[in-house]
What we know:
Largest sheet: none
Shape: elongated
Order of helices and strands: HHH
Amino acid sequence: MPGTSAWRTNDAVRCNLAREVLNSATAKLFEAAERGELDIDAAATQAASLRLELLAIDGFDRQAVDGFVNEVNKRVGRQMVDQS
Length: 84
């Protein structure tokens, strides 16, 4: 009989939110580069760094996932999406 996953549904939702926030931040970095506000190499470096940060997070650690989302939102000047 297969075991159950240690993930709760809301953990998966949290990880999806983190990926969405990361994708949005990446888009904003490249938009800034397109407008000439940021060097394209710097945008690519920052986007890669953010992605590596997300990959390093333990998906079971809700506090770490939420902390990542909050930090990325601060960096891109957005408010945190509802965490309930």
